[in-house]
């Protein structure tokens, strides 16, 4: 198990932008005021759907003003993370991928999902 960030499938939501807005509302109870596309592309990332070994991603920056109201059905936890916290979690993921953190320790206290490590590198956040 890794620490995931907000994400979802477009399905019947019409567009990537609509899906992003709806996922933010669904998962953490925030109403996006402004949404900006930062990056997009295909990444290998498994999915529980049949044939789901990759996704086409669009990464957005979303501005919203309210406290998080986590959906108990959609999320296990939710919170705001500083850039320093994201960097620390990314370093933990790098150590795990390098075999420096045992599986049991990782399960108890994971870093971010490896696919997010890739995106954060491309965004030059880590």
TrEMBL record:
It holds the Pfam family NUDIX. Residues 1-103 form the Nudix hydrolase domain. This is Nudix hydrolase domain-containing protein. It comes from the Bacteria. InterPro entries: NUDIX_hydrolase-like_dom_sf, NUDIX_hydrolase_dom. Coiled coil: none annotated.
